[in-house]
TrEMBL record:
The Methyltransferase type domain, residue ranges: 156-205
Taxon lineage: Bacteria, Pseudomonadati, Pseudomonadota, Gammaproteobacteria, Lysobacterales
Source organism, top-level taxon: Bacteria
Pfam families tied to this protein: Methyltransf_11
Protein name listed in UniProt: Methyltransferase type 11 domain-containing protein
Amino acid sequence: MHWRTKGLVQKVLGLHPAGAGLHYRLQCRFGGLTDFSRELATKIEDWTIMVGHLRAAGMPLAGTRMVEIGTGWYPTFPLACHLAGAARVTTFDLTRHLRPELLRRCVHELGGFIDTIATAAGVDGEEVRARHVDLRAAIDAGAGLEEATGGVVRYCAPADATRSGLADGEVDVVFSNSVLEHVPPDVIRAMYRESRRILGARGLMFHSVNCGDHYAYVDRRISQLNYLKYSDRAWRFWNNAFLYQNRMRAHEFVDLALECGFRITLDTSTTRPQRLRELAEVRVHPRFAHVPAEQLCITSIDLIAEPAA
């Protein structure tokens, strides 16, 4: 599909009263929900990467109090954290995407990842398996997410993660996966400040950001740097309610965290030769002229930040 076709379809759906329902059906037929099993496996792979980074930073999952920003269609990360023994996971989403049929399928298919979850988190596999048996039985009996997890996972949507309602210092980890690239910069700043408030003195903030042009996933004729061609005004036309992209570069997520009172302990951003070659083929708009090519071409970053003293 041509990326402009996708953009226009989503633009129209975002303006239609029934657009959310139509968008969900299109996602099931043509989009990210067409191959649920593959998508779930990818999310679990991302989860294991996050857990590895957190453990390396001295933050085990067992007994941890966590906040997720951006739940999505189904709560893979919160449920995997629950199975690994997290004490509490509060997950926020601006829009209520979660659907019972997707939740049930997610729970069922997580049964195939028991060993992966246990190994990644460094916990006993039988404990993970026992939690999954209880979780699956509760979901199959009609329980909601919070009830099925014994109160561990709390789903807040529609909700504003910049006003979490949580107490100062009551959280150990705030995290997101492929979310911040879809959030306006001023809102990211507010999220960081709220994270700084609710994190304990030894808490951590983890974000994995995919800051390339997401239209490239549906149109192989363009690269993940394609959207750097456009002015802010032109890009506003292609942004829409279902695929907003802020076009922030990797270093800007780090700079904002520093501005909001964090110290960076992990920054995986890397300049890759392939991206430099792709950038050379893009007529970059003057709006990005101040960014060195080595930074402009980076399309992903995992970062960990801790409250500065």
